[in-house]
Design brief:
The complex is a heterodimer of chains A (266) and B (447). Chain A has 266 residues and is mostly helical. Chain A is built from ten helices and no strands. The two termini of chain A are 30 Å apart. Helix content of chain B is 46%, strand content 16%. The longest helix of chain B has 21 residues. Classes of the chains: A mainly alpha (266), B alpha/beta (447).
């Protein structure tokens, strides 16, 4: 009975979701002004956006020179940059976070700097990176690095610091080497917190890459949005916005299932 | 005397190339060298008889040595060689901002001007002027579209790291406008603009300097009575629409775009302030040109060639179609035609016909650089003393451009500097020989 109730509950949720979508689209379409003399007035409606979306999705991999590539290629560039910057950030943040979590005095020494650096918008670093790294694409990756670093670092440090003293005491009693202690005790115990940090930061990284690419130009979804904005081609801009949202959800879901795997019961 | 002889040498070289399109460059080069030497000898001695007599006395090598001491033979040879010298770097990246000012730089790719001069160039769109400066400084682009004040500012290290730049050619002259929001249709002159919020594309732009000039001549202090913001051109239309700003002095197509969108009207074309004022330019890092002289020369020729082609009014529609696609300007062809042909609706219900609304002329007068420097000094962008002439000579390659224009068969101005005529303002003539007096002649100034 409970199961049945749960299923109908879920069906209800899906149905209301769909109804909400239908209402939103209808309101959107109805408030769209009809084109005057073939020229669109105001915000384009969902039908126009869908037509444009179909056009983009049906030919995602075309390449008409360096400034005009298909949406699939642009997404590829963005995700590529994201992965490089994000992986580097995860590595640095987890290493540093474990050290901070294990050593309260080290944590106290470093904490003021982290507090100052953390609230800085990752995009504010862009001019400095361009000046020092002298490469626009790597600068964008560094922006991703900065945007992903802090949530992972804070969560790792928090997770490691919160490990039950008993676990650490037992591992000390068993005279485990520090490598074993790290791999068998510390990381697994802190894993849920670390994955939570990873999940938060993949979201902020994806937000930052679009903004960074609007600045550097050239390739990526951000550049695509900017280029279409140049032409005030709002159908493409809306399509790209929805697409980035969709990719963000997929990335988040990936980490969501990873979190489920790594959660443990005490 | 040397000029016609060198042209003889060039013609012969041209004939050689036709016979032997991919021919051994070495032998062509030595042939040109020989021809240049012969021509110069011929010029010095007049008749062959006197030359032989002279050669008998001093010997051939001696004769050459003596000649070299009085005539810059090596330089003449290099000049004659420039067309056939091997290109050091064939694949190049050239940066641009998607505005009609960059027309020659952009169209040279789809219309084959780079190819014609032996280069394989890809033009890369950049999102803003600071970005295009950094891409160029970092070497991600080999050469670049810039605003005419930028190579001066960058060479001086003002608002940038100090990196020596050269500016071989101006791209467009005229081609800017003051656009105001529809609610300001009653505005007649600068005085009515007190309290306005304006946009310009960059601090170091003719847009900024012409807007300041226009306002100040009308008694409005651009630093106190109005607000001038730096905003990327595509955002200007959106800002105008949102009512965040009252107007802007911007490059096209974003003036015409405001009319197209029904958000604003064209108050004044910049050519009605200074007819023939420079706007955008083609520029490169000096060390790029030093390291790749032949590549630079070929690029220089391709750009001057394209600029001259764009100068012809009859070519403008064809050009509008070539640069409209998403890979380049990403604008409606109709809109670009309005800008390039000068037949356009002004947003007040009139259709204007101004063929030189935008024009293309590569010659980088030193006096243009000097005017720009006076305005940078006037508004406090330059704090230190400047040697106006020296900087102008170092950055604006007037004599180089003259040579290239002539070699392509175009007429070029004989002087590196000229007295520019203004149609708006108190001082109608700008004398490049008295820049400091010019600055002092302004009532509103920061220096």
């Amino acid at each position: 009975m409970d199961q049945l109730a749960a299923i109908s509950e879920r069906k209800k949720a899906i149905l209301s979701s769909l109804a909400l979508l239908a209402i939103l689209l209808a309101v959107w379409q109805l408030t769209t002004k009809p084109p005057i003399q073939g020229k669109a007035e105001g915000l384009p409606g969902p039908v126009a956006v869908a037509a444009r979306a179909w056009e983009m999705i049906s030919d995602p991999l075309y390449d008409r020179g360096p400034n005009d590539k298909g949406i699939g290629i642009q997404l590829g560039y963005s995700i590529g940059r994201l992965l490089v910057g994000y992986t580097a950030a995860a590595f640095v943040a987890i290493c540093l976070g474990v050290m901070l979590g294990l050593s309260p005095s080290f944590y106290r020494a470093l904490n003021p700097y982290i507090q100052i650096l953390k609230p800085i918008s990752p995009l504010a670093w862009m001019p400095l990176f361009l000046y020092t790294i002298k490469d626009s694409s790597r600068s964008a990756m560094m922006v991703i690095f900065m945007s992903s670093l802090w949530p992972i670092l804070a969560n790792t440090a928090f997770g490691v610091a919160g490990i039950k003293r008993d676990y650490l005491n037992v591992s000390a009693l068993l005279q485990l080497s520090w490598v074993k202690r790290l791999w068998k005790v510390i990381l697994p115990a802190a894993a849920p917190a670390i994955v939570a940090g990873l999940r938060i930061s993949i979201g902020s990284a994806w937000v930052a890459i679009v903004a960074a690419e609007m600045l550097i130009g050239g390739t990526g979804v951000g550049y695509f949005v900017w280029n279409e904005w140049n032409n005030l081609q709002l159908t493409s801009v809306i399509f790209a916005i929805l697409l980035t949202g969709f990719v963000g959800v997929v990335l988040d879901m990936g980490f969501g299932s990873l979190a489920k795997v790594l959660t443990y019961k005490e | 005397m040397a000029q016609p002889l060198l042209q003889v040498a060039r013609k012969e070289e041209g004939a050689m190339k036709e016979d032997n399109p991919n021919g051994a460059i070495e032998s062509t080069e030595s042939l040109i060298d020989q021809k240049v030497e012969e021509s110069v000898e011929h010029a010095v001695f007049g008749s062959d008889l006197r030359r032989r007599e002279f050669l008998r006395y001093v010997g051939a090598t001696g004769a050459l040595a003596i000649l070299k001491s009085v005539f810059p033979l090596d330089a003449a040879k290099a000049l004659a060689q420039e067309k056939t010298g091997p290109i050091e770097k064939k694949n190049l990246k050239v940066g641009f901002i998607p505005i009609t000012c960059a027309t020659p730089i952009i169209m040279a790719e789809p219309m084959g001007f780079y190819k014609k001069h032996g280069l394989d160039v890809q033009v890369h769109k950049a999102s803003g002027w600071a970005m295009i400066r950094d891409l160029s400084i970092n070497g991600e682009t080999d050469a670049t579209h810039m605003l005419t004040p930028m190579p001066l500012a960058t060479s001086l290290g003002i608002g940038s790291q100090a990196v020596p730049f050269i500016m071989p050619a101006v791209e467009n002259i005229n081609g800017q406008a003051i656009t105001l929001a529809n609610k300001h249709k009653g505005v007649k002159e600068a005085k009515d603009m007190k309290g306005f919020k304006f946009c310009v594309p960059f601090d170091y732009s003719m847009h900024n300097f012409l807007l300041r000039y226009f306002l100040a001549e009308g008694g409005v202090d651009p630093d106190k009575d109005v607000q001038i913001r730096v905003v990327p051109p595509p955002e200007m239309v959106a800002n105008l629409r949102a009512g965040n700003v009252d107007g802007y002095l911007a490059p096209d197509p974003f003036n015409q775009r405001a009319v197209f969108e029904g958000e604003g009207f064209i108050f004044m074309l910049s050519k009605d302030i200074w007819p023939g004022h420079p706007c955008c330019a083609f520029a490169a890092r000096k060390d790029f040109a030093d390291k790749n002289p032949n590549t630079f020369q070929a690029l220089f020729k391709a750009i001057v060639d394209a600029t001259q082609y764009a100068h012809q009014a009859s070519h403008r529609k064809e050009i509008a179609a070539a640069i409209a696609p998403r890979n380049f300007l990403n604008q409606p062809v109709e809109l670009l035609e309005q800008v390039l042909t000068g037949v356009y609706p002004d947003g007040l219900g009139n259709t204007k016909n101004v063929p030189d609304r935008i024009d293309f002329d590569p010659f980088p007068y030193h006096s243009m650089a000097i005017w720009i420097l006076t305005q940078m000094k006037r508004w406090g962008y330059i704090k230190q003393d400047v040697d106006y002439k020296k900087i102008a000579q170092e950055v604006y390659l007037a004599s180089g451009c003259r040579e290239v224009m002539k070699s392509l068969g175009y007429k070029a101005p004989a002087q590196d500097s000229t007295k520019h005529q203004f149609t708006f303002g108190k001082t109608k003539v700008f004398d490049p020989n008295a820049p400091s007096d010019y600055i002092r002649s302004f009532v509103i100034r920061r220096a």
